[in-house]
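Take the subject:
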Amino acid sequence: SVGATIQVGSENSGVALISDVTSVNYTNPVKLYVTSESGNVTRMYTVTVEEGVSFSDVTAGAWYYENVMGAAENGYVSGYPDGTFKPMQSVTRAECASMIAKAMGYDSDPDAGSAYPDVADDHWAKAAINFCAQNDIINGYDDGTFQPNKAFELSVKYGVSTVLFPDNSSIAAGASDHVYAAKASGLMKGYEEDGTFRPNNQITRAEAASIFMNAKYA
């Protein structure tokens, strides 16, 4: 009610909460003591505020903004310790394995050894890489390595649209059906400026996030 009073931090020695006057820091949970207008009843409420996902280099208006933020909120992708996302940076094979595994809700086995000699047992993405290998999603190379830090090449495994990309002649015959199936399903689209597919490009982090969000709503 209008006559109720609120103390912040302590019932008897806290700071009086006055609208548009009192400043409250919600970095940690805050206790609010609300006393009824009659003064006969006091109840304590704990208010916890969770900060939303944000990246210093992902701005509203960018073509990938909604997809990157959606992928982050769903736990498919994460940023770097300095608060950036680096949307135009190429995705490494380890990062892509991590994104796929998270999107598929995998259960990691921390005690399982690495499936590849060049992926250490304490590698941050070991469990995700194992998951992708076991499910034939991302495989290793002929020499038995996984090469986790190598840039992930743009390739589509499932995928048929009869509307061709302007650079269709650049798409390898063996990959054509997969590319156009991905186009038909809405997983991947042409570049905004000219509609091309650019099959030999490396996937950026922003593009990877967009693919996962397109898959979520496909």
